[in-house]
User: Fold this.
Amino acid sequence: MPKHFFLTALVYFAVLPFIYLLSALPFRALYLFSDFVFFVLYYLVGYRKKVVLDNLRRSFPEKSEDEINKICRKFYRYLCDITLETFKVLTISRKSMIEHCKFNPEGFALLNRLAEEHKNVILVMGHFGNWEWAGHPFSLLCKHKLFVIYHPLSNKYFNSLMLKMRSRFGTEMIEMKNTYKEMLANKGILNTTAFIADQTPQPNNAFWTNFLNQNTPVFKGTEVIAKKMNLPVVYASIRKVRRGYYEMYVELLTENPANTADGEITEMHTRKLEEDIRSMPEAWLWSHKRWKHCNASC
Assistant:
């Protein structure tokens, strides 16, 4: 077997007990450790800081350099928190999970109505707020079975760990390349399929729009499948209430996608995400190379 296989396995099994130890910490201790990780990551390592600052400057040209740096620092604090909160899912109780990530009443009522009408749903969201926690209260409280589209990690051990965390409370995962086939297979089950739509598609197969002051490629798959299957599309926003506590807002974008114009659904969920980011800029994943396919003119 290749040398890197053994090295990967060695690293995984070496850090796994530490991950479980972090998960078992009370929230107060977890956030003290997060503060330490922030100091190391931001001040000593500078993980992807150039990417973050470049993204912020291009997205908010109206902001001063002091404002950009302030958002940058707040983003790294947020990134450390949500990373450790993701590990917390390994040991958190059902009761605590629901307490820490609640549904907005109107959004919950909307999902209940669609369930009562026996309508399967497409849910679209971005890497905003605590997207990793969003599926857990959904699976614990909603009538729909939740399926989440994901892109596998290259490291099979850590990919297996992420799948374990994401599916702990009943959510099922669909590998991106199998999306449409699996959705067709699941159509007899009352379900919601969740798409995280702010990843970076290949530019020649994307919908292009202005997003955060930049010409940006957006995945068309959410809209294409919604129109093919004529499934209601809802947008979900997971907003931070205070440290360790979130509220999930769900709103209807369209109940009849087949009647929408080309690009209309993609524009709607992109604009919703942009509104969220502008309202709380530190809560989006700025370390992601979102505009890597753009040239200087984007």
Observations:
- The longest helix spans residues 65-88.
